[in-house]
Structures are given as structure tokens and as C-alpha cells.
Design goal:
The protein is of the alpha/beta class. The protein folds into 2 domains: 175 residues, Rossmann fold, CATH 3.40.50; 33 residues, no CATH class. The chain is built from 8 helices and 7 strands. A 7-stranded parallel β-sheet has the order 3-2-1-4-5-6-7, with helices on both faces. The radius of gyration is 18 Å and the shape is globular.
Length: 276
């Protein structure tokens, strides 16, 4: 699927700056690509300097002349995030769009999760949103006054509504993020800043590619193997999602095209959600 296909016009977000955390790979990188293709200036951050440098090199080749700023940043370090916000402001101007995307899941049952693991997981999920939101909120409020719209979108998981016993800590934390988004949407509404999220199901990633490479039946190609996986996981559309499909939902939620949407979540799971 071509990330540059006509989702948004090439100048739809011109004159606006977006910030994407966890932007060096996967859904975060795809979100950066979608936003750049729509004319936005984009600041991205990631923890791994080598991966970030590689992503930026690819982006500059793909989008020559794009307004782009990148910095290594640990979203769990408040001072690091503040520095990223200040440097992004100096490089690209104030942010009108913030995509909170950093974070990963933990596989463990209740019996296998000790107190420190619980604390680490809750800290990662909550503060990967809290720190960037605190740091960029003044910019978002200012841009709302100037442009008429500013928004935050948070990448969350379907685990928030459909917990899995083998991911007990992540499922619980994801449910908390669901309510955090709704609370922030209510609190920020008087300032005109919208807050929404997406709930991601199974999306193609390095993890699934590694499992494919380790498959027992080597006669299966990726399409067959992933379709079988989708069937086993009860995904009605019969396939895994693509990072760009989640990215488009995030880009929509931070764009003015969703200007009357706040406190909501878009399900990006191929119909897998069983929640009402």
C-alpha cells in the first residue's frame, strides 16, 4: 500500500507543525510519512539514535525539501521531553498536532508479573503520554488560537477493551489510557485542544515477520501465513493491518478534518473488536 496515495491533499496540512513520538519505526514512522505527504512540518523523536538517523535519512530522500526536525528523546524523562519541545519550537515553530505513539507491550500473566514490572508498565504507558502532552500543550493552545484547531492523538491498543490474560499489565494500563484520553479531552476542551485515540489490533511489524521466518511450514508465503493467523485470531477482514492504516487514522484525528471530534477512539482492528 502506497503511503503517498491520495488520503489527504499535498497541501492539506501546510502551515501546520506536527510532533510524533516514537517516530523512527512502525506506526510512528508511517504517521510521519502521512503528515509530510500532506504538507505538514514534522518533528519526530525516538530513543535509538541509530534507528532515528536511518529513518530521517529515508524521509529526506522520500520528501526532499520537507520541513523536518528529529531528536533522540526518552519520553519517560521529563527534562528530555522539555528539551525536545523547545528545540522543535525553535526549528519548526509551535506544534498544532501531537501524536503520542511511543511505547510497547509486555507479555506476562498475573503470576509472572512482579511489583516492579507493574510499575514499569504503568509508568511507560501513562508517562509516554503525560510528558509530551505537558511539554507541548502551551504550543497547542497558542496554535488553536491562531489556526482555529489543535489536537492530540494517542496510539492505544484494542487490549484496552479486550484484555488478554497473557498481557495482563499491558491490558490494564491500556484501559487506563482509554480513560486518560477522555479526561484530557474534557479538561482541554475550554482551551480548544481536542484529544482522541486509536485502538490498534494486529498490525504488521518486525515481531510478526520474525514469527513468519520461524514458521514450521516453509511452503507458506507471507500472504498465506498471515491470512491463517488472521483466521486464528478471528479478524473478519482476514488479514493483518498495515502501519499506514493506523497512521492514517492518527493523521485524521490530529487534522482539522476531525474538528468536531474529541474524547473518541477509532477502532483499527479489521473488525476484531467485540466491544459494544
Amino acid at each position: 500500500m502506497n503511503v503517498l496515495s491520495s488520503f489527504l491533499a499535498a497541501d492539506a496540512l501546510a502551515g501546520r507543525t506536527a510532533v510524533v513520538t516514537g517516530g523512527s519505526s512502525g506506526i510512528g514512522l508511517a504517521t510521519v510519512q502521512v503528515l509530510l505527504s500532506a504538507g505538514a512540518a514534522v518533528a519526530l523523536c525516538g530513543r535509538n539514535a541509530e534507528r532515528l538517523d536511518g529513518a530521517v535519512a529515508g524521509l529526506r530522500e522520500q520528501f526532499p525539501g520537507a520541513k523536518l526536525f528529529a531528536r533522540t528523546c526518552d519520553v519517560l524523562d521529563a527534562e528530555s521531553v522539555k528539551a525536545f519541545a523547545a528545540e522543535s519550537l525553535a526549528a519548526l515553530g509551535p506544534a498544532a498536532m501531537l501524536v503520542n505513539n511511543a511505547g510497547q507491550g509486555r507479555v506476562s500473566t498475573f503470576a509472572d508479573t512482579d511489583d516492579q514490572a507493574w510499575m514499569d508498565e504503568l509508568k511507560l504507558k501513562f508517562f509516554s503520554i503525560i510528558h509530551p502532552t505537558r511539554a507541548f500543550l502551551p504550543q497547542l493552545v497558542a496554535e488553536r488560537q491562531r489556526l482555529g484547531d489543535a489536537a492530540i492523538a494517542c496510539a492505544n491498543s484494542l487490549l484496552a477493551r479486550q484484555p488478554e490474560p497473557h498481557m495482563v499489565a499491558t491490558s490494564a494500563a491500556r484501559a487506563g489510557i482509554l480513560n486518560l484520553v477522555r479526561s484530557l479531552a474534557t479538561e482541554f476542551a475550554p482551551q480548544g485542544v481536542r484529544v482522541n485515540g486509536i485502538l490498534i489490533g494486529l498490525v504488521e511489524s518486525g515481531q510478526w515477520r520474525r514469527r513468519f521466518e520461524a514458521r514450521e511450514d516453509k511452503s507458506q508465503d507471507w500472504a498465506t501465513w498471515s491470512a491463517d493467523l488472521a483466521t486464528k485470531k478471528h479478524i473478519p477482514l482476514g488479514r493483518l493491518g498495515l502501519p499506514v492504516e493506523a497512521a492514517r487514522a492518527l493523521a485524521f484525528l490530529v487534522s482539522p478534518f476531525s474538528s468536531y471530534t474529541s474524547g473518541s477512539h477509532i477502532d483499527v482492528s479489521g473488525g476484531h473488536s467485540r466491544a459494544a
